[in-house]
Amino acid sequence: MSAAPAEQPPGNRSLIDEANRLMERNPGYRVEIIEGQILVSPPADGPHGEVLTDLILPFVVAGLHGDEAKLIQGMGLWLPGGPSDYAIPDLSLVDADYRNHKAYNNCYDPVVFRLVLEVTSSNYQTDLRAKVTAYAHAKVPVYVIVDRKHSRLHVLTDPAQDGYATHRIHAPGELVTLPESIGAKVTLDVAEILTAAGRKPEAEAE
């Protein structure tokens, strides 16, 4: 999901209060705080939702939505980068006991997150830059980006201080197997994902 920055709160209103106010005033929008800045994302288009549904299926088939793990869309992740920072990934794979790790403002401790996934929209740089740093600081083991702007799939692993030590970019025609550290073997077809996301794979482009 992409986002645009919002104005900082006036007076003594906290960032969290302002973020929640924006969410109440804009139903369907996603509001996050990353690096001390409020980001507001408009409702996603149909292909954005379609590819998320398609992406859930291989995880479910691999047994990653049951007694040990859960797949959840739009689940808040409390970030250690700032006193009010949090993100809402498009899709998260979390430990099944995540309910025991609620942090603040309906967000959850990053320790339960095995993987987060974002599907880019208009402001794709948020997912490709700011969130890379944010999720690495939170030590989320695997970050997957469906890059609709450039027709690529990014898989980032090995979180480090300023980002991920391993960042692999995959093109249409590739089959990508995610790290089995997420709990099972999951293989993704890049071309199928990009087609569902509304991007024609380059191999088929005119």
Rounded average pLDDT: 91
- Total number of helices: 4
Report the structural category. Answer: alpha+beta
Classify the helix fraction into a percent range: 10-25%
Rg is 17 Å
Largest sheet: 6 strands, mixed
Inertia-based shape:
globular
Beta-strand percentage range:
25-35%
Which strand order spans the largest sheet, edge to edge or round the barrel? 4-7-9-10-11-12
Helix and strand sequence:
EHEEHEEEEEEHEEEEEH
N- and C-termini, Cα separation? 27 Å
Low-confidence stretches: 4-12
Describe what this molecule looks like in 3D.
There is one protein chain. A 6-stranded mixed sheet has the order 4-7-9-10-11-12, sandwiched between helices. The chain has helices at 15-25, 46-61, 125-137, 190-196, and strands at residues 4-5, 30-34, 37-41, 69-73, 76-78, 86-87, 91-95, 107-108, 113-119, 142-147, 152-159, 164-170, 175-177, 187-189. It is an alpha+beta fold and 206 residues long. Helix 2 (46-61) runs antiparallel to helix 4. It is globular and about 50 Å long. It is built from 4 helices and 14 strands.
